[in-house]
Amino acid sequence: MRGLRIYLADGTYNGTVTMSSDSSKISAIRVTRENISNYENELGGPGVYLLLVGSNAIYVGQTGLDTIQKRIQNTHSGNIDSLWHTVLGFKFTDFTISSNELLFIENAMCEYVYEHFNRCLTTSPQKKNCTKAFRRRHYHLSGVQIHTCENYMEDIKVYISMFPAGIFPLCVEEILHIAGKKVSATAYMLGNQFVVCKGSEFSITETPSCPVHIRKHRKELMDEGKVQTIYRRCTF
Q1: DSSP H or E segment with residue 109
Q2: CA distance 152 to 200
Q3: pLDDT (tens digit, 9 = 90+) per residue, 47-87?
Q4: d(CA 196, CA 82)
Q5: 3-class secondary structure for 31-97?
Q6: Residue 208: is the preceding peptide bond cis (ω within 30°)?
Q7: CA separation for the pair 106, 98 (Å, rounded)
Q8: SS3 217
Q9: Tens of pLDDT, residues 179-218
Q10: Residue pLDDT, tens place only, 61-70
Q11: Is 131 exposed, middle or buried (0-12, 13-18, 19+ CB in 10 A)?
Q12: Do 144 and 104 meet the contact criterion of CB atoms below 8 Å apart?
């Protein structure tokens, strides 16, 4: 890959990382969920993406109709939307790429994740169908299209290999869960921040022992519309 450019937003591979190359039609970005709104251009196109969960699980997705930024903010299967903390997106500059080509690359990406990481959370395609033979016969692509898609996959693998300590941010700890009194919440540590996941809940009723600063923060969350009150529960 010629003319590789890597930008480290905070000077380290633990923050937002963007990559591009003079010889590739793909650019890459890894950014936390909280910061994706700041990277509309880097996520503003078709492509494939990895949603990182905890420190060992990955959901693979693709989009051609929406931009990556819009797609990752929409609904995914299972409880993925309440768990992922970081996205590694691969944007294609070729806006004419077909849906079958994207599905071909998504399948290849799933195979790569199954081979190199602990857990792949994608349910379709199934693991047994994530093979080169299945891809070549199932997505009805021409020989030229298959060759192009496989070259795209090689570029993606190069980008992934550029992360010296792997694609997961080093500071992300395991997902934490808590439940009680008809509410539940999920969170994780990101550096020195405690990040509460989407869908987490807290009771609308305050106990007498609730500290003043917690009461104040609860009110701020409700006033700012960051939580919704549903059936006596506040939900992020």
Answers
A1: helix 99-116
A2: 37
A3: 999 999 988 899 999 999 899 999 999 989 888 998 999 99
A4: 9
A5: EEHHHHHHCCCCCCCCEEEEEEECCCEEEEEEECCCCHHHHHCCCCCCCHHHCEEEEEEEEECCCCC
A6: no
A7: 12
A8: helix
A9: 766 777 777 665 555 667 667 777 777 788 888 887 788 7
A10: 999 989 999 9
A11: middle
A12: no
d(CA 198, CA 84): 9
Three-state DSSP at 175 gives coil
> Which residue in 71, 76, 108 sits closest to 89, CA to CA?
71
Which residue in the block uniquely carries the two structure tokens 């609730």? 210
Fill in the amino acid letter for 42. Answer: E
Q: How far apart are CA 53 and CA 184, in angstroms?
A: 18
On whether the CB atoms of residues 229 and 217 are closer than 8 A, the answer is: no
Distance CA(14)–CA(67), nearest Å, equals 25
pLDDT of 67 reads 95
Nearest to 29 by CA among 57, 13, 176: 13
Instruction: Give the Cα separation of 112 and 157 in Å (integer).
Output: 9
Residue 101: what are its φ and ψ, rounded to 5°?
-65, -40
Contact predicate 100/108, CB 8 Å: no
